[in-house]
Design goal:
This protein is α/β, with parallel strands linked by helices. It has a single domain (3-234), classed as FMN-linked oxidoreductases (TIM Barrel). Helix 5 packs parallel to helix 6 and helix 7 (193-200) runs parallel beside helix 9. It has nine helices and eight strands. Strand 1 (9-13), helix 1 and strand 2 form a beta-alpha-beta unit. The protein has helices at 21-28, 45-55, 95-104, 126-131, 139-152, 170-178, 193-200, 210-214, 216-234, and strands at 9-13, 34-37, 61-65, 78-84, 113-120, 157-161, 183-187, 205-208. It has an eight-stranded parallel barrel, surrounded by five helices.
Length: 235
């Protein structure tokens, strides 16, 4: 089951942030390809289940980005397992994974598990602080991490995570020059049609998160913007 490879646009919802029913409906019915549930802090089984239950009212793919082992629950279409390639501590590269597989390995439906190599590039983001990510990277560093993700670890997803700020397209272009089959996810600072279109021109999947809570109308417009770039590329 690899429908996620067709995703061009996804919204990321944080279980620890409030969103009303009307806003959630508009997001799920917007034409986005998927809803990704994930956050850095305050993620619990209860708020994850609550959000999953609400999203499941709509016919849209729903994935869990695993950050807290205790919040893992059945019911998602996919389970994205992050490996933060530029993390300072091995817990975020293999340690947490060992703990999770030790607990859930025999009951996991492995076809639903998607390994993702993350490169975190916003030094002020919560995820960078949590993982101790080395964020002072240039394009050659990013290319190297992309090659590690695809050719050494054979991850199907390489995720450039700016988490709150817009990174521009240079790093995505650097990764794209070396990747042959791994899907490039980009997340960070997509809060306008212009940024959505620019990033959709280079990334395989554009993920919109923070702007949902800051400017819902702007976030919703990114769906059409990404689809326009996709349609133009196909012509």
């Amino acid at each position: 089951m690899n429908e996620y490879r067709t995703w061009r646009h996804a919204f990321k919802l944080d279980p620890n942030k409030k969103i009303d029913d009307e806003a959630l409906e508009r997001l799920c019915e917007s034409g986005t390809d998927a809803i990704i549930v994930g956050g850095t802090d305050g993620v619990t089984l209860d708020n994850t289940l609550q959000l999953l239950s609400s999203v499941r009212q709509y016919a849209v793919d729903c994935a869990l980005e695993i950050s807290v082992i205790d919040a893992v629950t059945p019911g998602f279409d996919y389970y994205f397992v992050p490996t933060v390639l530029n993390a300072d501590h091995p817990d975020w590269i293999i340690g947490m994974h060992h703990k999770a597989v030790k607990e859930f390995g025999t009951t996991l439906h492995w076809d639903d598990v998607v390994m993702a190599g993350y490169c975190v590039l916003n030094p002020h983001s919560k995820v960078a602080c949590l993982t101790g990510a080395h964020t002072e990277l240039d394009a050659e560093d990013v290319m190297a991490y992309a090659m590690i993700a695809e050719r050494m670890f054979q991850f199907p997803v390489f995720y450039l995570e700016y988490s709150g700020i817009y990174g521009g397209i240079e790093m995505i272009q650097a990764a794209k020059r070396t990747l042959t089959h791994a899907q490039i996810f980009y997340g960070g600072g997509i809060d306008s049609v212009e940024k959505a279109k620019e990033m959709a021109s280079v990334a395989d999947t554009v993920i919109v998160g923070n702007s949902i809570y800051e400017d819902l109308e702007a976030a919703l417009k990114t769906v059409k913007a990404v689809k326009e770039v996709t349609n133009k590329t196909k012509q």
